[in-house]
Write a sequence for this structure.
């Protein structure tokens, strides 16, 4: 039995989504690094401890915004890549919406108020 899969030319838009998400994720990581310096949270601590750092909540919100995006990245990539084989334009469009949503989720979460992450812009 031979399995043949035809990749449509529109699949390039799906790949473009992956590249865009990689840039977004890198940018979020840089923001965490900046917050780590600003709020004085040394490595290897993943989160700041509120009893030791009065600005722990502010740093932790930035860290959680990035960490949450990493946690869902594998699901997003698999769904995008597999769905894109059959429906590349729909997958690319939904992927772009997801990436934009992730940007605003991160920005609003990073305000230091976790409730902001679920409020409409």
């Amino acid at each position: 039995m031979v399995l043949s899969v035809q990749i449509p030319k529109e699949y390039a838009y799906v790949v473009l989504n992956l590249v865009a998400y990689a840039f977004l994720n890198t940018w979020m990581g840089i923001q965490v690094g900046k917050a780590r310096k600003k709020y004085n949270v040394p490595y290897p601590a993943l989160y700041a401890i509120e009893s030791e750092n009065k600005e722990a909540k502010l740093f932790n919100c930035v860290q959680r915004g990035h960490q949450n995006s990493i946690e869902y990245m594998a699901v997003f990539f698999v769904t995008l890549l597999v769905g894109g084989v059959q429906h590349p334009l729909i997958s690319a469009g939904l992927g772009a919406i997801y990436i934009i949503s992730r940007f605003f989720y991160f920005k609003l979460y990073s305000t230091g108020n976790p409730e902001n992450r679920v409020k409409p812009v």
Remarks:
- The chain has a mean pLDDT of 91.
- The two ends are 51 Å apart (CA to CA).
- Helices lie at 11-38, 56-86, 88-109.
- The longest helix spans residues 56-86.
